[in-house]
């Protein structure tokens, strides 16, 4: 394994350990010592990649955004919905996403500024709404920045409520209820009628993304010649 | 002052001190010692009213619900909107409301169950939606429990976002945006057209409530005879 690849793997290992620590303890009570213990690396390795607890938290939040976007759709409002539905699907299964949500909601008094995933989500959603508007999918009164901010805020509130009441067991159903309430105020009727807002939408789109990723990996392995193809088959 | 009245005043003093401590430190870092110091009462007085930190937190959350309901309206969906708008108006000015919101959002790992204002708000809103349904104000697909839960969750998320981004300076505007997005999926068109969803709605309804309370106090003082009337004028 090349040195750079090894460094990236270590960085990912540290981020995942940090995510599990932040998710369990919150920002204030999290310690770098605990991250070191869980990552199974040296304290020096952690400090090589992240100078402070704050940088670790920032890394967790940014790590979420390295994840690829949902597949493009001809209907941009479906992409808008899919973006929220896939994150909803990932919260209970991806420690980085779960920790990013928790860090963004934490209200610790000592908390440093800038540890918040919301601004990134708001601009991602705002861009999709602007695209949707250019294609005539939006009702005329919609202000993309306002609707993107509201969607993000409401999603966070719904996530908190689901976590508190059912340990997230009904998260997908609650998020579907959120979209069913919001989209009629956003989409023109013809687009609204075509939107898939079902609770299992996130799981289906994520399966599609996984299949596409595996197909792409297979192609790369195939292009590498018989050796690569063998490795893929074995 | 009668003994019972004095006890109620002390209880209120303790709750307000507890609210300011919870609001500043969160549940986990709050101490009864700090509540004692801020209330200016003895430790024994605090323990006479509240056996533990958990009971203090519960008291803060219940204290919020002792507040009177918004004025009755012939349109129950306007009462539904007013309920959320008045709380929105109170969050920045009433420490009990602010602390109840913070306690409900706190995610501390050690946090005991039952410290959550949301269930009380959800049932209050659900009752108003059921009344609205009986008067034909709701679209046919609305499920009162689902919409009440979503409204409460979204409000909490919007409050967090406003606090994070602007220190709550734009809270009323953001909550108005929330209602403008949700109500078209809840109200029949004839009712929707009559709803007042303006950002200053909460302040106006609260002024109406204050005036009604002062008028009632004046009447009581008047009924108590010249002495009472003098006291009121002085």
TrEMBL record, chains A, B:
| Keyword Transcription regulation among record annotations | yes
Keywords (alphabetical) are: DNA-binding, Transcription, Transcription regulation
- DNA-binding residues: 31-50
SUPFAM superfamilies the record matches: Homeodomain-like (SSF46689), Tetracyclin repressor-like, C-terminal domain (SSF48498)
| InterPro entries per record | ArpA-like, DNA-bd_HTH_TetR-type_CS, Homeodomain-like_sf, HTH_TetR, Tet_transcr_reg_TetR-rel_C_sf
Matching entries from Pfam families are given as: TetR_N
Report the residue ranges that make up the HTH tetR-type domain in this protein.
8-68
Q: Does the keyword DNA-binding apply?
A: yes
Identification of the protein by name: TetR/AcrR family transcriptional regulator
